[in-house]
Every structure is written in structure tokens, then in C-alpha cells.
Specification:
InterPro entries: Dxylulose-5-P_synthase, THDP-binding, Transketo_C/PFOR_II, Transketolase-like_Pyr-bd. By secondary structure, the protein is of the alpha/beta class. Helix content is about 35%, strand content about 20%. The protein is built from twelve helices and twelve strands. Helix 3 (about 50-65) runs parallel beside helix 5 (about 85-90).
């Protein structure tokens, strides 16, 4: 199966052909994928070199002229390094862009901590008005990329990862999907965490919601799920643990409830290793998740066989 990032350049290249407003801004990363598009649209495929602050600033400048810029590089260089430009050039100037990242939390362990960004969405949460898509499959990535580019002049972040679920789900760029129903708690699985969450909760009497658009957070879906499953909620996110705890608490503010946020820990892992080793070290493998989810929900979560 191809990866989400494999889909990125072909999908956006087609959008460049289809829509004269679309422009692409790169900082060396991903340039090879746009060679054909650059020949066809030399004025709308721009490589600024290894200058990430300029990357975002150029995107904002294009947006001020009425274009719809798609800005791409690794997450750590797209959100963290040029955060001031994201905050001011886009937010303060009230213009939109589509930021599309690669490398996610730890997709390239050999790149070291400079190429890891588990805190990207938590950082964007300090700003107003961002839509955040976290696809869990290449097909979903393609759909959400198209949603993002077509979203008027909004500020949109699309977080691509090499981690993927085995199958795609229908996504609409807004709502959570109910994948499994139960009565002893709600588990929200974000993006590529779904398959692992389903394996971890096999035999547990819980509702599993699947989220690929996490900002705005689908508070209505969470509240509906708690009507039959109770108000114990576990969030399993492929980035910094607790990133969505506050918005989940806000969704249930008028109800007695508990929320457990699981995700990437704050402790830096100083050995590169492999992706699977990072997953296990952060307790995001199926066995660890089952223990942590089961411990939080208690004995009532065990599904009784007929």
C-alpha cells in the first residue's frame, strides 16, 4: 500500500491543474514530486529552499493576493520552527493556507528529535480558527486534502503519517464515526490509532469513535456516545498525550465525567530505534493500550459473553 505522503504530490498536482487559485510552496522537501506540475505551472509551484520561516511567509503573501497556498514540509519545520510566522503572517493577517506536514510524531526515528513533532497540534491549539485533519489511511488523506484546499480561505492543517490503518473509512472533514458500540465507556481513536485501539478493546464493552478531523472537535458525537456508553472517556491520539483532554472536558462540562488522555509522552527518547519501538515506549501498542484502558474503565468494561 502506498503512504499518505505518496498521495500528496499527485493529488495536489491535479488540484493545480483544476483550480487556478491553488499554489504550492515548498522548502526543498518534496520538490521531486512536483517536477511535472512545476513545468506546467511555474508561477504557482515555488521552492524557497531550506528557509522555513520564508516558507510560511511566502504562503501568507500568496494568500493575500487571493491564491490558495498549500505549504509543505516536515511537521517540526512547518509548525514548530516557523511558529511566529504561522501566528502572525497567517493568523494576525487573517489569511488562510493549507499546511501539510510529513514525519508526524516520530515517523523518521533516524532523523532524531529535530525531525519529530509530537507537540504540533497542541501548539496550534494556542491559536484561533484552525481546522486540523489527521487521516488514518492514504484514501482518507486524499479526501481530506481535497476538503482542505476547497475550504474557502480557512486555515487548515493536514497531518500526514506513514502509520496507517489497514482500511479506509468514509470521512467528511467534520464528524467522528461510530465504529463499535458498547455500554461501559467511550474510546476516541484518532487517525492511524484506530486499528490498534480496536485490537486493544476487543472484548471490552466500549463504544469506539473514530476521529480524523479533530479541530473543531466533534463534541456532539462525543455527547451522543456518552448517552448509552456512560461518561468515562479515553482519548487515544498519535501525538502529545492530553492534547484533546481540555476540549473533551468542555464537551461534557455539565455532566459528571472522567477523561483519560493517551498519546506520545513528554519524555524524549534519545535512541533512534524503529517506529514500532517508539510506539511501544510510549505505551501506544495494543497490549499497553488494553492495560491502560481496562485499568481506567474497570471491571464493568469487560464484555459478558452470551
Amino acid at each position: 500500500m502506498d503512504t499518505m505522503r505518496d498521495r500528496f504530490a499527485p493529488v495536489v498536482s491535479r488540484l493545480l491543474d483544476e483550480d487556478p487559485r491553488v499554489a504550492v510552496v515548498l522548502a526543498e522537501i518534496g520538490v521531486a514530486g512536483f517536477e511535472g506540475a512545476q513545468h506546467r505551472h511555474p508561477d504557482r509551484v515555488i521552492n524557497v529552499g531550506i528557509r522555513e520561516q520564508l516558507l510560511v511567509g511566502a504562503g501568507a503573501g500568496l494568500a493575500l493576493t487571493g491564491l490558495r497556498p498549500v505549504v509543505h514540509t516536515f511537521a517540526s519545520f512547518l509548525v514548530e520552527r516557523p511558529f511566529e510566522q504561522v501566528k502572525l503572517d497567517l493568523g494576525h493577517q487573517d489569511v488562510g493556507a493549507v499546511l501539510v506536514s510529513a514525519s508526524a510524531s516520530f515517523d523518521w526515528p533516524s532523523g532524531g528529535y529535530t525531525h519529530m513533532a509530537p507537540g504540533d497540534i497542541a501548539l496550534l491549539d494556542t491559536l484561533d480558527g484552525w481546522t486540523v485533519h489527521v487521516p488514518g489511511h492514504p484514501d482518507e488523506a486524499e479526501t481530506l486534502l481535497r476538503h482542505a484546499v476547497a475550504a474557502g480561505d480557512d486555515k487548515v492543517y493536514v497531518r500526514l503519517s506513514v502509520q496507517s490503518n489497514a482500511e479506509a473509512h468514509a470521512v467528511d472533514g467534520a464528524r467522528f464515526r461510530t465504529v463499535r458500540e458498547g455500554r461501559a465507556g467511550v474510546v476516541v481513536a484518532v487517525g492511524p490509532m484506530l486499528d490498534t485501539v480496536l485490537a486493544a478493546t476487543e472484548g471490552l464493552d466500549v463504544t469506539v469513535l473514530y476521529g480524523t478531523t479533530v479541530r473543531p472537535f466533534d463534541s456532539a458525537a462525543l455527547r451522543r456516545a456518552t448517552e448509552s456508553a456512560g461518561t468515562d472517556v479515553v482519548l487515544v491520539e498519535p501525538y502529545l498525550a492530553g492534547t484533546s483532554t481540555a476540549v473533551a472536558n468542555d464537551a461534557l462540562a455539565d455532566l459528571p465525567h472522567r477523561v483519560l488522555g493517551l498519546g506520545v509522552g513528554r519524555r524524549e527518547l534519545r535512541r533512534y530505534g524503529q517506529i514500532e519501538e517508539h510506539v511501544a515506549a510510549h505505551g501506544l501498542d495494543a497490549g499497553s493500550l488494553r492495560e491502560r484502558i481496562g485499568g481506567f474503565l474497570g471491571a464493568t468494561a469487560t464484555r459478558v459473553s452470551a
